Amino acid sequence: MRRIGGVIHAYQKYDPVQFPPPSAPPPDLVSSAFEQAMMYGNYRELTEEELANAVRLDPSQIAGLGPSLDMLRAMLEERKRKILEAYETYSVQKKARKAFQSAAKRVKVPKKMESLFRQAIHREQPYLLERLWFQAGDDGGDTARGLLNVTERMSDKHQVQELASKYDFTGQQSMSVPKALEVKEELEKIDELLKQLEQAAETAQIGIIDMDLLSEFAEPGDMQSLEEMRQQVENLVREHAQRQGLEQDKPGGGFRLTPQAYKIFQGKLLQRIFSELQPSRSGRHHGDVIGEGAVELQQTKPYEFGDSVANIDLPQTVTNALLRHGDQRPLRLHSDDIVVHKTRNHPKCATSVIMDMSGSMRYDGQYINVKRMALALQGLITSEYPGDFLRFIEMYTFAKLRAPGEIIELMPKPVTIHDPWVQLKCDMSDDEISEHQIHPHFTNIQHALQLSRQNLINCDTPNRQIVLITDGLPTAHLEDEWLYMLYPPDPRTEAATMREAMLCNKEGITINIFLVPSWSQSEEDIRFARRMAETTGGRVFFTSGNNLDRFVVWDYVNHRREIIG
Predict the structure, then answer these.
(1) Which chain positions lie within coiled-coil regions (predicted)?
(2) What's the pLDDT at 95?
(3) pTM for the full model?
(4) Domain segments of the chain: what residues?
């Protein structure tokens, strides 16, 4: 059988049969852009090079475009092999050692510096020679110049030793010290290029290849073809970026995130969250549950004991009676004649999400996981539960209501005081005191719960909850106009926080606490979370930060099921 595209395949390893079809899934561009925005807290525009380097393409999508990466890798490995087979390193190590010892013998140091100088030479420690050089004072003096020369010879000796230990030389040709350093630099360049080419072959990230460095080894024709391939990949990325909501003001300008990209990223988050659920568990909730509800549907069903008479389909019921009894008068209704409208349960759920942005949330990038969770939850409610009420509250020394569009920009507050014992209070009714003058990195759970309660209390649904995401105990609270900042955590702050939690419970608001790990977390943090949950009828979830979005979103869906059921 004749192979399709045989000549082209033989020379370019390009097989038209294996070329990816137009329906191949596009690379994910928005996730990389949003992850960068969440890490740094802004929507800084991404350059074409940054976007190309962040994207993971299927290597099959660049098959046959330009020179073979395997060919370039083979060329570099051949160059490396020839160098290793040409030289030996025993003699150059001996030369470097003699040059170092000779330079050390020529230096005359003051008597007070002799002990430290002998120690530096014996231990071969550059930092000791640097101390001596600073003690010498006069940069142009004989001692300073001699110490500088010894330092350079010591560095040469160390680099030659590194060359000999890092590479297996099998040749017979000896090298001078400068030649050995030149060979070491060339071999390290080859290793770096081989690493880049291997990564590019796996991810199709042509942008990571250092073209200037590769041009020192590759032929001009190969470099031109590789540059053309890089430009084709950038064009592919640019085309997909525009389709996924990344706008470019002008050719060569940066890419900007749009609302379309926002929705796509939220969709990808939800897809990842629900795809990670175990097959044996309940599947994702689709549609509405049919049963005893408030919204009538067009479909009807025979009346059953317990159905609400308010949902009777009167015209159909009378029609059934006429069909069954004909001209019989008076017309009497029987239970078999009665039909009722099917109804749909569509209860509203009101949720306030408290996001801890205190100083400790910078640990292990926990704040990124919190923001990813918030975006996923907002995307879920917008797409599947549009009637639900959702508010986001940023928590630090104060609590602030935040719009969904501000979530990306939230960042952990910088720690501005490092004393191990802090006992501060501030009169917030004083007009001369502003929030910007107050240390922002404390954790004020009490104020966040208060603000949540004020937002949820007027919602026309009994299904109200607070999702509190934090890493530990509260360290700030409000008492009337006074703000208290107490560290280590003080019983007075805990008592104020528990009082506010009880007020939430009195209003029928459930508090669910998601406790994320932190370097400062202790057993007392866990006990406090349990006490608050038990007091208010809520729950505590111990989560790893990377799975926070899955825990919160799936708990929200389960809570909706409980309401519907």
Answers:
(1) 180-246
(2) 93
(3) 0.56
(4) 59-218, 295-344, 350-564
